[in-house]
TrEMBL record:
Chain ranges passing through the membrane: 6-25, 32-50, 62-82, 94-115, 165-186, 192-210
The protein's name in its UniProt record: Uncharacterized protein
Organism whose genome encodes this protein: Paenibacillus glycinis
Keywords of the record: Membrane, Transmembrane, Transmembrane helix
Amino acid sequence: MNYTLFLSGSIIEYCTTFVFMFALFRFPLKGILMQIIIIAFMMSHFSYITRHFTEINSYSSYLQLLLLIIVTWGLFRVPLFYSFIMNGAGFISLFAAQGITIFVIVLTGTSFSHITRDPEIIFSTQLLSGLILVSVSRFIVMKNWGFDYVPASHRSYIEFNRTNSALFSVIASSIVIALVAGIALRGNLEKYIVVAGTTFLCSIPVFLYYSRRKDVEDAR
């Protein structure tokens, strides 16, 4: 039962994160949905194995991010730099959505320790987080608020100007801060989620600012 719930919740997370990434960067989903589901299925098993049967469970999320960057680069032919930006944005947004969901659940009177021990509540958290990402994705598409600066060819020339450097720095610094917090607060999941979630939430408006700036610069 725990395996089924974990796998189902993880697949939901991966699929909705891809939907969000592709909506944010104006990539069409038509024709690649089956590929996304297969990737989600395979990555969910990787997540299960690394979280339950290895000593690197604390770093599993970051290993998955690294693999997703490689997969997006290789399978969808997105330049490696922009694959990092896309997956970093998806990773941060998912974590922020999960943090908000957990905060709301705690407000209902459910203790954090109970949330982390109950597979059904964990699955519900994953499902609600996924719904948040899908809703935001739908809103982005309806309002036509996505970004155009990610090229569809891995052969595209990438200029490391100020804006590109800023985008990289925002994503990289927030992930590094969260990773360091995970190491420093190992064994204290509640504090880690607070630190990482706050870091990611604060990084989102900065990322959006530089992404809009990047679009404007490329349009000139």
